[in-house]
Specification:
The chain is mainly beta. Helix content is 4%, strand content 44%. The strands form eight sheets. Strands 8, 9, 11, 12, 13 and 14 form a six-stranded antiparallel β-sheet that branches. It is rod-shaped, with a radius of gyration of 64 Å. It starts with a strand and ends with a strand.
């Protein structure tokens, strides 16, 4: 049931399509070639137009690309019921048969660095069902998601190599070269400052253009039109509050307020600071005295009180003139004194030491007729002398 298959070579070679390996790899211990019992695969002979094919039970390892060249055979049945039977054939193939290590389809993770995460992709050789022969090329392709930039295609190339040696050798894909990314252009654009920032006026926005792999492909002030206000100007001016110190050099505090009168509208702020009041001191009213003048007697006074109002020699005073005349015509004291003065409230004599006397009223201010002493003082003020 197994081994060489003989037949009419010339007649069958003219067939329009010849299967290379039946069934194609990957096979199993129960594979059926349609002729033999389960567990066999058939490789078409070159005499029937076959060019070889892949024989591989993945659980056994030792993937092989097998060719059958016997011109007398239509093909060869290879037993795969067990790992031992498969190894037996590899150790003692039929004369003229060839075998080469092959690589079965595999997987790898692509899209390294993409924000959307890794993608598992199949490594495919150029042979049937993605198999590859030793030294052959394989590829893995994946679509990567990389927000916010977009999607791109990541491709890796591989070379079919060998692991182990002899009849136990098996194929292994190894990456050759770096990833080949196919990126979409102009997938993402960000904008920055206006080209007229700092100077004012119309300009263009700074743009950064990315492809779908997140790589910068262009930068410059070629974005949409933009406008920036011209720079403002500041004009900070201080103002000073009154100093709380005494006039003439007293220490104190004052409030300083800074105000921005420029176009920046910076507002204002205040703070206290020490100060010396060097302003000249102004005179201050601190005392004085006044009275209501009463008539006093003179040489021509006669009778009681009344004649003193009109006779010659009559006078008016504030009680500081002794009584005169037979009529006892005099005026009682009427002084009212306050503040810093000397003397007594009854007979004040003037302002205290260091003060200025300012006479504000005399008898003449009363406009009394026949006044013998119009210059008599009836009121005065005491002022500080700065």
């Amino acid at each position: 049931m197994w081994g060489k298959l003989f037949g009419l070579v010339v007649f069958l070679a003219a067939a329009p399509a010849v299967a290379q390996v039946t069934p194609p790899a990957p096979q199993s211990p129960t594979s059926s070639d349609g002729v033999d019992a389960p567990g066999f695969v058939r490789v078409t002979s070159s005499a029937r137009g076959g060019t070889g094919g892949f024989v591989d039970v993945p659980a056994y390892g030792a993937c092989r690309y097998v060719t059958v060249t016997d011109p007398q055979a239509g093909g060869e049945a290879i037993a795969l019921q067990s790992a031992a039977s498969w190894k037996s054939w590899r150790s003692h193939p039929w004369a003229g048969d060839t075998q080469a290590v092959c690589c079965r389809p595999s997987t790898d993770t692509l899209c390294q660095g993409a924000s959307g995460g890794l993608v598992t992709a199949s490594v495919q050789g150029t042979g049937v069902n993605g198999y590859g022969v030793l030294g052959g090329i394989g590829t893995a392709v994946a679509t990567c998601n990389d927000p916010p930039y977009g999607t791109y295609v990541d491709q890796r190339n591989y070379t079919c190599g060998q692991a182990g040696s002899g009849v136990d050798a098996d194929g292994r894909w190894s990456q050759s070269g770096g990833d080949i990314d196919r990126c979409k252009a102009n997938s993402y654009v960000t904008t920055g400052a206006c080209s007229t920032a700092g100077g004012g006026g119309w300009g263009s926005l700074w743009e950064t253009v990315y492809n779908s792999c997140g790589q910068v492909t262009g930068q410059g002030y070629f974005g949409p039109a933009c406008y920036t206000q011209p720079p403002c100007t500041t004009n900070w001016q201080p103002s000073y509050g009154a100093c709380s110190g005494a006039c003439g050099g007293g220490s104190g505090t004052q409030t300083v307020t800074w105000t921005d009168y420029g176009s920046c509208s910076g507002g204002s702020y205040s703070y206290p600071q020490g100060c010396v009041n060097n302003g000249a001191c102004m005179p201050q009213l601190v005392g004085g005295g006044s009275c209501v003048p009463f008539p006093v007697g003179g040489t021509d006074c006669a009778g009681a009180y009344g004649p003193c109002y009109g006779g010659p020699g009559c006078g008016y005073g504030c009680g500081d003139t002794p009584p005169q005349g037979p009529g006892g015509c005099f005026g009682p004291s009427s002084w009212s004194a306050w503040g810093e003065i000397t003397g007594t409230p009854t007979y004040p004599t003037g302002c205290a030491a260091g003060l200025n006397i300012v006479y504000t009223q005399t008898n003449a201010d009363w406009n009394l007729a026949n006044d013998a002493d119009p210059g008599a003082i009836t009121a005065f003020q005491c002022w500080t002398n700065p």
